[in-house]
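My current task is to audit a protein record that another person submitted. My question to you is simply how this chain folds and whether the tokens agree. This is what I was given:
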Amino acid sequence: MTRRGAAASLHRSLAGFVSHEDPANVLSLFAAKARQHGGLGSTDLACALRACRGSGKLWPRVPEIHAATVVRGLRGDRIVSNLLIDLYAKKGLVQRARQVFEELCSSDNVSWVAMLSAYAQNGLGAEAVGLYRQMHRSGIVPTPYVLSSVLSACTKAGLLVQGRLIHVQAYKQGFCSETFVGNALIALYLRCGSFKLAERIFSDMPFCDRVTFNTLISGHAQCGHGERALEIFDEMQLSGLMPDCVTIASLLAACTSVGDVKKGMQVHSYLLKAGMSSDYIIEGSLLDLYVKCGDTDTALEIFNLGDRTNVVLWNLMLVAYGQISDVAKSFDIFCQMQAAGIRPNQFTYPCILRTCTCSGEIELGEQIHSLSIKTGFESDMYVSGVLIDMYSKYGWLGKARRILEMLEEKDVVSWTSMIAGYVQHDFCKEALSTFKEMQEFGIWPDNIGLASAISACAGIKAMRQGLQIHARVYVSGYSADISIWNALVNLYARCGRCKDAYSLFEAVEHKDGITWNGLVSGFAQSGLYEEALKVFVQMGQAGVKFNVFSFVSSISASANLAETKQGKQIHCRVIKTGHTSETEVGNALISLYGKCGSIEDAKTQFSEMSDRNEVSWNTIITSCSQHGRGQEALVLFDKMKQECLKPNDVTFIGVLAACSHVGLVEEGLSYFKSMSNDYGIQPRPDHYACVVDILGRAGQLDRARRFIEEMPIAADAMVWRTLLSACKVHKNIEIGELAAKHLLELEPQDSASYVLLSNAYAVAGKWASRDQVRKMMKDRGVRKEPGRSWIEVKNLVHTFFVGDQLHPYAEQIYIFLADLNDRIAKIGYKQEKYYLFHDKEQEQKDPASLVHSEKLAVSFGLMSLPPSVPLRVIKNLRICNDCHNWMKFASEVMRREIVLRDVYRFHHFNNGSCSCGDFW
């Protein structure tokens, strides 16, 4: 046989092996021909490249064949180059594919299609559009295949505008009737959410193939339009087209999206008859249907009959048990998976980690985290995002932050999980700092990130930043997102911008419970308690279902207004709606009754709670302390420790205040030391102020001063104000002046500081010094807060000022007060001189103008309320010695209970004595 004949024979053999998909023999013959004959042509090289295209193992030979192409001067050959472009594109080597494309001597439509497909396959939509424009400028008329390729690139990149322009060109050239162009257009509009346009193209197409129907069914299923997807399937069957595996998988996804397990079972029956149930994709879709529809038993049956080497099926079973929070079975599946030798993928760990998060099994989650590190998945963005979410939700923010910092590529989910975790645990400044950092990294926030950032602004009342993020919402296209609207309503309400909050609230088209609760809680937290209660009432009238958040916010508002009646009405609603077992609601009710002076009701509420947490104990301890029941508060503290609940910084505020109110000096100091020694709690300025109060009330002012001087932190205004108040009571001007000096440096515009110092000088009879302080106050433009008292009578709150003559019943009140003074004088009451004025000033003043507001409020209450109703009075300042003494006598003569809440505590006057034991 001649040399030429042998070469031709080898070439025929090459072509034969290619047609029979035998790549190994192709390359063996290719190598033999290269050695023996050397005359490799473009056809031989093309055969070898086609063989490599059919087998991933042979990919390393592609660069060798490419080199042979260059050596033989075939660099610009179109057939070989088109195959190289395709092979490089499939490996993601787009730049090498482009280099081959640029080296072509002349590009035909096949070359352009190959390069466009290369960009499309690798998600480079903008580059594909650019190449298409270059082709257009070169004068090459695009074929339907070219248009189909560039439209697919636009679809994958979400380039709707560019896709529409190409749609116009396809229409002008009459290619829209081509089935594959129509299919590409349908995919484009479905991907970009333009369902009406996609349906219009579908209805205008003269011929629809299986791809057309599959594209429409899949597109609708992915967007949750399950019912429409099922309708299109019916049309497909009427057209005579048989569904394939892609159709069935899309149909099952459609049934899953609408939760139609019955229709899904019909599809299941169809695929069993058609013999398609063993398909890899269908197995996963079928299992997903039963898992998402909550039929775990059927899902387990399918799993046991399926391909146990398919990691997707194992992951779906983890999701199945995760949905019902069965962490034991979920972990069992995970262990079986490992025993079967199935290697977890990046979706396996998130499935079980989410179950750990929902079930509160944080320690098990830590073990899974360790395993993900060993298998090299910790750095995966998807796995890390779920880990950050798990640790953040349970307050392990340091660990969550370390995972975020470790990630080389951080996606929006990772950042958002971290921001949401900070907000959840009230680290709002850190949340906003992280939100800013995310944007500096070039990550655009999603709706959850924006809502979390707005909530962070609300948490620290950062209205300016909130306004900036509000503007960003519109730019980002999330202006219709309900979670963002709810966060904005809460932000404006919490920052006290009442009109803006109502305006946003009214603009929400579909209000849910979160919208209403955001307004109620926002107003309650900004001190607009009456507005909060007003919205709560409207919420009930609108038929919106109350939940825990509704009740907690409204009860807190009632507590801060001391609205006992309205608070009790809300308590009744709590009982009717079955929320009495909610710990948060119970805690709010304890606080309500404690702040309204009903300590017995607070204790009853506490004792009836089935599930008490640290907040429950802290609230009842603080309430007992404020009501002068210091010993009871300390007994409760001991019981709390017996319940194995660890005290926190709030607990010790209540305990130290209890010691202060009953004069337990050494015990109080012992509790203070135990904070750091026994519980590892670093004392805050509030705790130091409590210790100063303990020493100051007991008259140990020198010891209190030394304590302040030895503090490891700088004393704040509260500490010095507490010392100054004690100096006034005990008439110690020297230490009082020291305290006042520091206090006026820290808060030069606070009226209370000047008033305390002025009163201290008055008590000591230093009238010149008193007058000097008053002048200083006047010169600095500081205005004293006037003393006021409030009492509720017949659903109306009456306000009284010192020497008040403006009340409608002022005349009757003063007559009643004069008579009462005569009666209590007969049993031993002696009015103390108004120590704030010297004798000459008192002679010049009308005696009525010196009557304190609490005496007027109590007198009005005694006149107006029936004997069975206790008098509840609120005073915005500390009650003075004379008024305190007067109320003891009044309670004895009138045989009435008088409850007075001043700025420091509650006083319960009954039968001539006070709950404070005259120690306040």
Notes: The chain has a mean pLDDT of 84. Residues 329 and 445 are 36 Å apart (CA to CA). DSSP finds 50 helices and six strands in the chain.
